[in-house]
Design a protein that fits this description.
Strand content: under 5%
Shape: globular
Helix content: 55-70%
Order of helices and strands: HHHHH
CATH topology: 434 Repressor (Amino-terminal Domain)
CATH superfamily: lambda repressor-like DNA-binding domains
Largest sheet: none
CATH architecture: Orthogonal Bundle
Number of helices: 5
């Protein structure tokens, strides 16, 4: 099964032109957590999803692949 969240997160981060370390600092998690999310090894909790959605200006549904932006 494809991990739409992992793909979307990495794509949004690259579009914004920032690294994993910068994103991690912006939303209050470690760089390792961003890496785990982007590699599909872990999924974020609700507070992290909200922080990511706010940071990127997208919906949680978009982040998780439930809707197109």
């Amino acid at each position: 099964m494809e991990n739409k969240f992992a793909e979307t997160l990495k794509s949004l981060r690259l579009e914004k032109g920032i690294g994993q370390v910068e994103l991690a600092k912006k939303i209050g998690v470690s760089k390792a957590v961003i890496s785990l999310w982007e590699n599909g090894l872990r999924e974020p909790g609700m507070s992290s999803l909200i922080a990511l959605a706010r940071f990127f200006g997208v919906t949680i549904d978009y982040l998780t692949g439930l809707e197109d932006y």
